[in-house]
Amino acid sequence: MNFEELKDIIKNDLEKIQDSSQLREFSSVYLGKKGKIRNLFLELKDISLEQRKSLGKEINEFAALIQTEAQNLEKTLKEKEQERKQKLNKLDLDFPGEKIETGHLHPLSTIRREIEQIFQLMGFAVVEGPEIEDEWHNFDSLNIPEGHPARDALSLGKTLYLETNEILRSHTSAAQTRFMKQINPPIRIVIPGRTYRSDKVDASHEVNFYQIEGLMIDENVSVANLKAILQRFLKEFFREDVKIRLRPSYFPFTEPSFEIDMSCAVCNGRGCGACKKSGWVEILGGGIVHPKVIENGGLNPNKYKGLAFGMSIDRLTMMKYKINDIRWFHSGNLKFLKQF
Amino acid sequence: MNVSYNWLKTFFAKPLPQPQKLADILTLHSFENESLIKKDNDYILGLDVLPDRAGDCLSHLGIAQECSAILNLKLSEPKIIIKEEKKIKAKDLLQVEIKNKKDCRRYTARVLLDVKIKPSPKWIQEKLIACGLSPINNVVDATNYVMLEMGQPLHAFDYENISHKKIIVRRATAKEKLVSLSGLEYKLNEEILVIADASKPLALAGIKGGQNAEINQNTKTIVLESANFNPKLISQTARKINLRTDASIRFEQNLDPNLTQKAINRVAMLIQESSQAKIAQGIIDIYPEKTLPKKITLDFEKLNNVLGLEIQPSQAIAILKSLNIKILQKTIKKLIVEIPTFRQDILIAENLIEEIGRINGYEKITPKLPCDFLAPVKRNNDLFWQNQAKDVLKELGYVEIYNYSFISEKEKDIFQAQAGKIKNPVSSDFEYLRPSLVFQLLANAKENLKTFKQFKIFELNKVFLKEKNKIKEIRKITGLIINAEENPQVIFSKVRGEINYLLNKLGCDKINYLKDSNEIFWDKQNTLSLVSKNKNLGFFGQISPEFAENFGIKEKIFVFDFDFEKLQSCCSEEKTFEPISFHPPALRDISGLLNENISLKEIVESLSQSIKEIEKPSLKIKTEIADIYKNKSLINKKSVTINIKLQHLEKTLSSEEINKVVNHIIKNLSQKLGWEERK
Hints:
By secondary structure, chain A is an alpha+beta fold.
C-alpha cells in the first residue's frame, strides 16, 4: 500500500471514530510502534537517499498530525462521555422525602427524664417508692394524723383503698420518710412516679397521674435555698429566664409552706388567658419540712432541717407540648403517641 | 370565702388600699384571691383561706386582722353592749349538760324573751347578700352575721319546743332520726354528735339545725347556742353524711373555744337592737377545760437560718406584735411569746417563723443555692435499665404506651385472672388492679387497628399480683406486634430477632427458649418461654387466634411479656473487646436431613458443644442456622443448612484444618441427632 492511499484510509477511519474504544483500536492499528504508519518506514529501504529523506520527513509530519488529532479527539470523546454519564446520574430533586417509621417514647417518659436529669445535675439522686403504700407512710408520717381535716379530705374522698387495707399512694411524698431512714444526711433526692386519686376523670383530672417529689435534708437548709433550687430548675426546664414568687400555703408536712408561681411563659407575665390575666402560673408546692416529719424519718429535728417540693409531671408535659387534655396520656392512641 | 371590701373598711379609721391592690397584697401575704367582683357599690374578694387558718380567717374580723398586720393599720373591733333583765335568770329557764367533754369542749347559751320575728335591718341584709347568704329573719340573720364577722357558728332554738327545758350534748342512738332545716331526713348513729333536749335530737352538732326547734313566725323565746366541738368528730361526721356546711367547715379546724362568749353577746346585742328582745341575765357556760394561751420560744438564729434572711430582732418583734402575739421575755438570742387563743394553728416555733416570713414578704428572700459538697449522685440502676430497655425498643420501632393501673371486672373475667380489688373504685372500669400489661395492650391494638395496619407497641410499668391475701407490685415489660400484611412465620422470626437484640443490648446473654406457656390468651403451640440463669423471664409468642377473635381482633397478634425485675437481674454492662483477625475467614456450608421432631434448641446445643470441644483462643468458630425447610418429598424429615465460619488470628487456614473442624461438627450432629449429610 502506498503512502497516499494509507493517508486517505487513516483520515477516513479517524473521522468515523465514535467512542474511546474505537479510538484505542485506531491508535493501536496506526500509531503504535508496530502501527501501520511506522511500517511505512520499512518500505523506504528500497528508494534513494534523497527520496528517502523527503518522504521520511513527510511520514513523520503526517504521524505527528494524526497523533495530535487523535489526542484532541480523545479529549472531546472523554468530555462527551463524562457528559453522558452525568446525565445518567442526574437525580430528580423534586422527589419528596420518604416517611420514616421509628419508635417513640411516651411524652411523660421524655419529660420525666428531662426533669430527673436537671435535678441530677444539681446533685439530687433519683429514687422510687412503692405504689402500694400503707396509711402510715401516706398520711401519719407526713403529720397528717387520723382526724386531721387534711387526712379526712384525702382519705375519705380521694384515696383508693385495697382489699388488703393498704392504699395506692395519693402523692409521691409518701416515700419521704422511707428514704430519710435509708439515707444518711445530707439527703438530696427526687422521687418521681405514678400516683393515684379517686377523682372524676376530665380534661384536667386523672385517676393515674405523675408527680415528682424533691427532698433535701441537711443541717442548714433555708427558704432562700428552696427558692434558688426551684428557680434554677424552672429556668433549665423552660429554657427561659423565668421569675418565681412564693405565696403562703398550707401543707401539714411543711412549715412554712408555699405555693410557687412562675411568670407566665405565654405572655411573659403581662397577663393573658393562660394565666387568668394574673401574669403568674401556679407550678408547684413546697416548704420547709415539718419537724415532726423529720422525727418520723428517724432524724433529730433539732439537728436537721429539710426542704421539700412537689410538682405534677403531667402538668409540665402539657405546658411544654401545649397538650390540652390530660386524658391523651392514657389513650394508647398512636396518632397522639407518634407525635413525640 | 367571700369577703366584702366595704365590711373590711368598717374595722379601720384609715383608708385601705384599692380593692385590686388589697387583693394582690393578701395573695402574697395571706391567702390567694381567686376572684374580685364588683357588686353594687361594694367589691367581693374570693379568698382561698388555707385550711389551718379556717379557725380565725373564715371571718371578716380575721381578714381585717391580716390587713392590719400586713399594712400596719390600727384595727378597732365593734363594741358589744347588751342590757340584761336582772329579774329573769337564764339558769332558771334552761339547763345544759355535756355528756362527754371530749366531744364538746364548750357550750355557751343565752335565753332571749319577747323576741319579735321579722326581717333584719337593711344593713345586715346587705352584708349577708354581699357574702352570698340569703336573709331569713332577724334571729337567723344575726347568727349568720356574727359567723361572717367573727367566725363563730351559732344556732338559735325555739325555746317552746325544747322538752323539759334541757339541752343535752350527746351521741345519737341508731334508732334516732333528724329532719334538717332543709327538710332532709338523716338516720343517726353512735358516731354522730347531736344537740338534744330531754326526749329528742334537735340538731346535728356543729353541722346543721333540725326542724324540731326551728325558729318560726310565732317564736317568742329563743335559746342561742355558741359552742365548740371536737374538730375531728365534726369533720368525720360531715364527710360521712356528706353534708358540709358553713358551720362544719369552721368547726373542722381548731376554732378558738374562747370565742363563744364574745360571739353570743354580739348576737344577743344584734337581736336586741332589732326587736327590743329581753335578754335573761347570765350566760349558761359549760367549759370543762379552759383553753389557755400557749407559750413558744423563738430563737433568732433559727429564724434567720430557716428563712435564709437577716431579720433584725426589733423587726421580728414588731411583726409578732402586729399579729397580737405578746412578747413575754426578750434576750439577745431569743424571745418567749404568748400566742392568743384565736390562733390555734400556731403550735411550734416553725409556725412563728412562717408568720414572720410571710408578713415580712417572701419576695424579700434572695435565692441562694446551697453551697456545700459536690459528691457525685448515685445512679439509680432500676431507672438506668428501664431507660435502656425503653431506648432499645424505641430503636427497634416500638411506640411506648401508658395505660391505667386498673381493669374492670369484665376484663378480669375475660382473662381469667386473679386481681387485687379496690374497695372504693372510681368507676366500674377501674375496679381491680391490673395483674398484667397484656390486657390493655390488646385493647390498644383493637383501637389502633381502625387506623393502622401495622404497629409495634410496648409498656414498661407496674402490675399487681394477688397471692393469697397479699398484693405484690412488680415491674413488667410487655410488647405487642401486629402486621396485617406479613406472613406470621416472618413476623415470628423478626420479633424473635428483636427480642434477641433487646436482650443482647441489655447484656443479658445465655437465654434459653422453652416450649411452655400458662396464661389463657397464648396460642400454646406457638409460644415460647424465656429462661436465663434458671429464671423464667416470661413468654413470647402468638395470642391464641380464638382468643383474639373473641376480643374482636382478626389479625395475628404477637406478644412478649417479661418480668422486668428478673430480666434486670440478668442485665450487665460488661463488654470485652474480641480480637479481630486480618486473615481471610473460611466459610463452609453443610446441609443435611434431620428427623422433623428435632428442635432448634437441640441443633444449637449440638453446635455449641462441638465448638466448645475444638475452639482455641486463636481459632474462632461461628455457626449459624441458615435455613430450615420441609416439603412433601421429605417424609418426617426436614432439611437444614448451617453456615460455618472459621477464622484464625494469626494465619490463613489450610483446607485440612478447615475439614477437621467441619467433620467434627458433622460427626456430633450425626451421632446425637441422626444427621444425614446431603452431598
